Amino acid sequence: MKALAVKYRAAARRSRSALGGTLLVGLTLALVTIPQAVAFSVTLAGVPPHFGINAAIWGVLFCALLNPSRIFHGGPNNSMSAAIGVTLLPLCAPFGAEYMGLALTLGLMAGLVQLLFYVIRPLGRMLDLISEPVINGFVCGIGLFLIFKSITTFGGLPLNTEVEWPLWIAWQSFLAVLEIGNLYAIQIGLVTLVTCVVAQQFERLRNWAVLSGIAAGTMYSQYLGATVGHANTLVEQIGNLSTFGVISPSVPLFSQEAMPDIISMVPSAVTLALLGLFQSVAAVRRMNRKSGHYTDSRSAIRADAISNCLLPFLSSLPTCASFNRMWLVHRLGMHSRIAIAVSALWVLLLVLYFAKTIAIIPMPAMAAIVMLLGANMLKWQDIKPHFKHRGEATVFLVSFLSVLFLDLFDAVVLGSLVAIAYAKWQQAHPDVSLNGGVMKIRGNVYYGSLPVIESVYHGAIARGVTDIVIDVRDCHYIDPEGLRWLFMTKARLWGLVDRRSGQDRRAARRDGSAYPERRRSSPDQERTD
Q1: Cβ contacts of residue 238 below 8 Å, gap of 6+?
Q2: Lowest-confidence region among 14-18, 422-426, 481-485
Q3: In angstroms, what is the C-alpha Rg of the chain?
Q4: Residue 83 belongs to what domain range?
Q5: Given the DSSP bridges, would you call strands 492-494 and 475-478 parallel, antiparallel or unpaired?
Q6: 341 and 457 co-located in one domain
Q7: Which of 80, 239, 353, 363 has the fewest CB atoms nearer than 10 Å to its CB?
Q8: How much is the pLDDT for 310?
Q9: Is residue 164 part of a domain?
Q10: What confidence tens digit (pLDDT) does each residue in 129-171 have?
Q11: Among candidate residues 379, 397, 418, the one where a domain is terminated
Q12: Average model confidence (pLDDT) for the chain?
């Protein structure tokens, strides 16, 4: 009985520890998500703050329920919010009823496009062509993007609402902060940043680092307000959220008068859908390797598609994976869908009951947190392997620099095209070596690689090599054209057997004492393993 009591107490302590960790991670995510949701709504999408707050609640909940990943965190996204603003600003004035109705319609159209990518498997499969160098370049580019985007807020300057954010604009913003930046805002940001960095150095305080930084920055802001006066510090705060409701039902705009605008938004809806899917698939693949838990990319497509078909009826921005918040979940070490769902409930509770307290959190403190999360996404140990291979380094740099000089969608498309082109180049250039009379082919024998293989073969004949043996044991794939060429040559084949003969090709691979004679039959009668 005593042993059972000891086991029960140990299990109870583990349960309390897990519950405390889940609540802490959820609270940390909520405090990071709320200011991002407000900023993305107002400054990028041109809609009221509750659109982003609803995405931080219902978008996160839907994704946690639909996506089996333990660290997938949906919710409002900066690039998707910016895309909404770019699409709708030429059509009508922001924050108006027509503008908000079209924003909901655009989100619903994007969700329907994403649903097609889930239902039609080949379309969804195309998203898996994003290679690891593209993903890492994308992640590092977004990390630097977040740092650049937060510079003006960190310095107490007005938010830059420019959607395009090339490197030279970030440099000009940095110079502006140095010249006319608000010293009080910079102090608040530095206090937040230093507190977070110091807390991360201690194992017991690591999970509290973000909360500690926000608390320290807020208290220092209140201290400056009490001693200097808020009218003199001019530090921007999150603002009042007291008008927020638990559920804000809405209906997308599909009136006859709006149909010309809706039709004109179709290309933008496709772009918005792909922008979200690219980020979600890339984030899932990236975090699969980081966390050690595998989640099929189709789960991310399904979660995004269904969520974005429902969110327009809840006055919400569209949702997709958030690299920085998923990275935060991984850093905090709590890989749990429950913790992610709890974060959405924390957002709801905080906005309902602590709206006035949240309103005093200074924006420079939140900018410092975003900059820290961006810096954590730049990991040299993840980048270093790509620079050991020239092709991967090229793909990584193209993807990374495209994020900084182009928009995020173009960056993923360009990086993926370069990765596909590089992969095809590699397949079309197999390793062909000639040792004596043996020509060994390592790679694929297909229409794209035949020119390289034929040049080596005919070069050997030109040098007087008459008895050539073609070793295809290390060939991964031989297409019909490659098979026809092999049977047209006068060489003997090593590793190509007729299955009808009963010969085991694996036994032939082990036995290297002789070269089997090629049978003079038609290509259609021969088969490869």
Answers
A1: 34, 35, 38, 358, 359, 360, 361, 363, 366
A2: 14-18
A3: 29
A4: 22-379
A5: unpaired
A6: no
A7: 353
A8: 94
A9: yes
A10: 777 787 778 778 777 877 877 788 888 877 554 445 556 667 7
A11: 379
A12: 78
